[in-house]
Records
---
Amino acid sequence: MMRRFTWLVPAIYIIFLMLPIYWLLNMSFKTTNEILGTFSLWPQEFTLDNYRKIFTDSTWYNGYFNSLIYVVLNTVISVTAALPAAYAFSRYRFLGDKHLFFWLLTNRMAPPAVFALPFFQLYSAVELFDTHIAVALAHALFNIPLAVWILEGFMSGVPRELDDTAYVDGYSFSRFFFKIFLPTISAGIGVAAFFCFMFSWVELLLAKTLTSVAAKPIAATMTRTASTSGYELGLLAAAGVLTIIPGAFVIYFVRNYIAKGFALGRV
Amino acid sequence: MTLILKDVTLNVGAETHIYPTSVELAEHGFNILLGTTLAGKTTLMQLMAGLVKPTSGEVWFDGKNVTGVPVQKRNVSMVHQQFINYPNMTVFENIASPLRVVGMERSKLQKRVEHIAELLKMTPMLGRKPNELSGGQQQRTALARALVKDADLVLLDEPLANLDFKLREELREELPKMFEHRGCCVVYATTEPMESLLLGGHTASLHEGRITQFGETEKIYRKPADLKSARVFSDPPINTASVSKKGARIVLNDEVSWQIHERYKDLADGPYTLGIRPHHISPVKSTEENVHIEGKILVTELSGSESTIHFDIGDQAWVSQSLGIHPFELGARKSFYIQTDKCLFFDISEQLVAA
């Protein structure tokens, strides 16, 4: 008797998991009037107007471009800076290495709001306010430590003898690092890049504080709920759907290593 | 090709990893570094290769001082105990990598790699990645990479330790043949006394960062210079006991004493440490000269045709290794017979005085 209902628990789980996302998708194909007026499980008047608006209105699609630009910039900066740091932490012993390593992680423990004001002041003073690089650098504050931790975990999984073998074979350090070491930990680099991408993509507070028009992120555009024509819920839903896509796209490539990434490369 | 270490030491922080070591390794069969784990075999090899710079002392190779020369410029090859290959490259590229670095011509490289692969029976695997291979094949790949370039110095750091015994025996037989007539200095590290005896050549016995003795393998086995070397070069561990020589007799304790064998008749009276290898003590009497001792059985290990028996005399542990199956009961008192002509005598400073 019990066995006939074994499908029930996973089914409930999946429904709860997928319902909000379905509802977002559902709303994005409705008009705002329908959303506010009736309760329906699927769009009664199916419309693509919401998406059309986003892809044609520059205030909307520029939001995506701005977000993508600073997220990619940040990912490149974070991983590039973290690679040599992680290598040093995994291969050398130096004074205070363990403390420095732990201190890196503590940077993640402070809420971004703590840094919002000083960053705003600092970036304004050096005239970086409202630029993509400003947001990318600000996000590096918590993405570089994360990338260092993840990469250090992956690098420490590579035996030191691999380095020795390469030197014995005649490789110089740089040639070994780029030709052998980086390909060996490519999964780790992918995971680190994914986490940098994800955290930078979802971070709103710093991105909003450090930009006004020229580098305004999509999330900031989305918080503008009301316009001259009232609430545009359908439009917001469509923007939401489009915001999920890059993350889902990137996660596909590192799906096999995500668990190891959450454990900071230490499985 | 000779490798000479002159008073080489290595300190890491406040710890001494290698005490002043001087040794001359030549191109005469294998040079074996024999020692337990943490004896400093790998560290010594890293010093020889130039991966680690000695704290003091000099490394000379082929008449040149190479102390400060980085490993890349030394023409060395090395195989580690773990199977180390480049995981992102195919087996072919793995083997070819030392040749690629020096920019060897394509057709020549192809030929060299294929020849070596043939020699190590790796030809069918050339297109695969190391992770798709078995342990034995991975280690063959590493060996091939070490063999493909004409290295002057080849360092093999327990290359067979992680292989199963069939493969180990097979490769152990092949290895010396591979390096024959290559004109290179081969250093081989192992923890197993049996392995160094099988490989022959010269052996350096290592103990806690010191080379206790260096010489032809067989000589070291027969005449270990001191107690430490004897201990390193004996498996199961060598039996030791305090004895004294009084006139023509060796006295072990109140009950056991024997007429000294004429080989040792020049020994002066006084206290000694007696060393007897386990296979010179047997539960079976072989000649009238055997000395009879009695002990309480602790453990009996039967391995096919051999018995290794651990027993106590008083509070001292002894080991006997002999042919045949002797399934003694635990705790039983049994007789053992020592071959009195196979004794090693060490003086109070643990130096060998008679063998």
---
Amino acid sequence: MTNSMETKNTISSFRLPLSERELKAKGEPAFAFSSSISLVDNDGNAQKIDMHKTEQNAIFAQNFKYWNQETALLSTNNVDNPYFQGIVNMGVDAVPFILDELKKGPTTLVYALDKIFPGVMKYEGFVSLNDACKRWIEILKQV
Amino acid sequence: MDRNTQTSLNNQHNRDILCDIFPDLRNDANFEILSPQTPDYNCIAWAMQFEDRWVSIFDYPNYWWPNGVEKTMSPNALIKAFEAVGFTLCDNRDLEESFDKVVLYKNEVKNEWTHAARIISETTEHSKFGQSFDGTHSHEVLCKTGIGYEDSSYGIPYAFMKRSKSFTIKEKSLSGTIETNLELLRQLLKK
């Protein structure tokens, strides 16, 4: 884990503009995305775009952003949260994105993998966040 | 950490992250960010002078709670947790020679503990902000939160505690194990 100022799992990129926060505070949807995009070249050839991956990327990014925003400064429980559950609900689709985050540094996002793959890791006693993340990175390399 | 790095951490961008959530920090002359963000320890650990664990009641591998102390969010449970590591209740935040002092916070609506900070002077506390930075600030500037951050509120101070600087915590070093089931992972991935 690095101690640089730009620690990768920072909340700095998750500051919401005031208007988006106000909307969210009122319980109104603060984000939306479209999954209907097609690409046709000048010769009229249609190109297939992996919309599923694009969609999953957007879903993960938004859940990750709001999870960070809501829990980053909490000292009680920085895991259990509806947006964290949103990442868990993505199931296997979330794994590449979670793995990318783990590789940047220790993060409690690792526990989403324990919920997506129950029983794969058995922890006894105290295990540091760093060790939990390293073990998941190792095991995911093997599959 | 050298002074240049420390000064760089206390830049406007990083300060704005915390000021958005705790707007009273913006005009607080005692507000200074001192260390990088880390999820390794929280404010409770910091106040207890641990940097190797997250001190909370929930059941996650890197979370720790003193043995024998009720695992609840009640303000009294946090007092008991601090007592388990050598602190005792005291009347105020006034510094006493040979003692370290802390202040505990609670959400008064939910009546649940939320935060703890080291008291470092008559006017200043030193807090670890969740997974984020740690830094100094004036008393009670964390009670108000910005729009959309109400759930991040630390609430109000409700107890002061002190511990002798010579106190040594007697505990076995933290240890644990991880067993992995690669075959199960492969099966789950096939589904």
